Amino acid sequence: MKKVNDPVRYTIYFAPPADDRLSQTAARWLGRDAFNSGALAWTETPALDGEQQMALTAEPRRYGFHGTLKAPFELAAGRSEAELIAAFDEFAAEIEPFEVPEITLTEIGPFFALVPTRHCVPLQNLAEQAVRRFEPFRAPLSEADIARRNPEKLTQRQREYLTAWGYPYVFEEFQFHLTLTGPVPDDMRGAMQETLEAAFDEFIGKPLAISTLALFVEPHRGAPFTVHSLLPLGGATTRKIA
Fold first, then answer.
1. In the 3-class helix/strand/coil scheme, how is the chain assigned residue by residue?
2. What is the distance between the alpha carbons of residues 236 and 241, in angstroms, rounded to a whole number?
3. Which of 231, 190, 145, 182 has the alpha carbon at shortest distance from 63?
4. CA angle 136, 242, 99 (to 5 degrees)
5. Within a domain: residue 3?
6. Between the CA of residue 178 and those of 136, 153, 200, what are the distances in Å?
7. What is the pLDDT of residue 23?
8. pLDDT given at position 20
9. What is the pLDDT of residue 51?
10. Does residue 36 contact residue 228 with C-beta atoms inside 8 Å?
11. What is the CB neighbour count within 10 angstroms for residue 238?
12. Is the dihedral of CA 184, 61, 130, 214 positive or negative?
């Protein structure tokens, strides 16, 4: 339920277009399409029943299929949504599309994600630019927000980044990932690995085109994130002429 004066949060994500096969496969896996916020029937799997899959994908389902570039933030005082949208448009136009040579399935702590097989400099640069470019729009984190990040479990550098940039995993701490699960119990990881390898087989070991950028919105805390805008990368000169 929305609280009075519960502020909207925004975030800059990578997301493929709605009609991209990866988007569609991930939406079916998560049981939700962030482009229209519609619930979807899960992909049936032999190793997991529906309730297990629903529980293990609950967290990424709320956020929608994405790769974080600028973590969720409330607007800073004096900033408007219209200004953010204009800045987002300019930023997307200035970044030329590129390709991650290969992605793979991996475990990051207790959850599974698709990640670049090797370090990708253009992707790291994109994330750094997004963090810096949209920082003027970010309101400072509340004490509760900082506590949610469990700062006692972070390194000193990560705590410094959390304070300075609102997110501990920026710059050299950044690891691009397309999250597919929440925490998976140890005794289910083998089955989950096999299930995900089968579900995302056509994408694992293949390139990932970074040709679009998405602005997601969380209408109020705890609500599902939805796609506000998805823009193609590049074409700054063409856009100015148009």
1. CCCCCCCCEEEEEECCCCCCHHHHHHHHHHCEECCCCEECCCCCCCCCCHHHHHHHCHHHHHHCCCEEEEEEEEECCCCCHHHHHHHHHHHHHHCCCEEECCEEEEEECCEEEEEECCCCHHHHHHHHHHHHHCHHHECCCCHHHHHHCCHHHCCHHHHHHHHHHCCCCCHHHCCCCEECCCCCCHHHHHHHHHHHHHHCCCCCCCCEEECEEEEEEECCCCCCCEEEEEEECCCHHHHHHC
2. 9
3. 182
4. 65
5. no
6. 26, 23, 12
7. 97
8. 97
9. 84
10. no
11. 9
12. positive
What pTM was estimated for this model as a whole?
0.92
Pairing of strands 9-14, 67-74: antiparallel
Q: What is the pLDDT of residue 239?
A: 45
In a domain, 170, yes or no: yes
Which distant-in-sequence residues (6+ apart) come within 8 Å of 188 by Cβ?
52, 56
Q: Which residue has the tokens 């089955």?
A: 191
Cα angle value 43/37/131 (rounded, 5°): 105
Range of the domain at 13: 9-241
Answer yes or no: are the C-beta atoms of 8 and 74 closer than 8 Å.
yes
Domain count for the chain:
1
Does a structural domain hold residue 1? no
Residue 48 lies in a domain: yes
CATH number reported for the structural domain that contains residue 103 in this entry: 3.90.1140.10
- Within the chain, which residues score under 70 in pLDDT? 1-5, 38-46, 236-242
